[in-house]
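Sequence in, structure out. Go.
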Amino acid sequence: MAIYNYQRYQIRHLTARLCNDLITGTVTSPASGSFVCAETDWEKPDTYFKKWIEMFCYSGTGVGTSGNPTAWENTTHALTFLPAATLTAGDLVEMHQVFTVDTYNDFINLAIEIVAKEALQNKTDTSLTLATDTYQYDLPTSFLYINSIEMESSTSGLYDSSDPIPNEHWRIIPGSTIKLEFVKDLFTITDGRALRIKGLASPSILDTDTEECPINPTFLSYQAAALLHQSRIRGHDVDSEIHSTQMTLNQTMADKVRETIQANLGSAIAVVEN
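Output:
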């Protein structure tokens, strides 16, 4: 199972490029509410960025700073923005004219949720410890499938992957809190022994820009772009028709990549039946 580990800001930039809605740059000569950016992509006429909706610092001392561009002077390569804030030379910024950073992040998370039961990830948990005469335990959250359960060795303190607890010795009990239950007639509880549960879990949504996502970023960017364009369809005007066309193109590409995402379940036991 492929692990990509793209950070959220990287997926956002891929998505924004599909929407033709991104310029990035490096801050130089910062002041309160303005900074200089003289990179090639920023060679634009005066006031060009005035109608853009957001300047956002995604890396550096000023990370998280967001502002509305109010003026751009190409001769000095100075961007002015409100609310006024002071960035630091070397900070990395991005600019958007159609969708905000928060909107991109929300739709990327929606794309993650769309394939949550397909893009399953390996998960290992060692938080459970057996207790005398206790046969039911709260199953650690987020497991959708369990491949094996191993018990800590009495002599070395390690787990023996070659000798997992037989599947018929345990079962999953559904409910508001899912339980792992050992069959009393088949399994002997040894007090104090830790368990190692191996299985598959859904990927988590992304809460920070530096958080990594193991899902194919090509799918996420195409799917998020399709959803973003869909959100701008209002009727039969020219703008809506453009967004409709772009939505269809991006959704077609997302569907093609999605076909490659399905996880191999093997003999894994489902925690919650579909």
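Check: Residues 133 and 189 are 7 Å apart (CA to CA). The chain has a mean pLDDT of 93.
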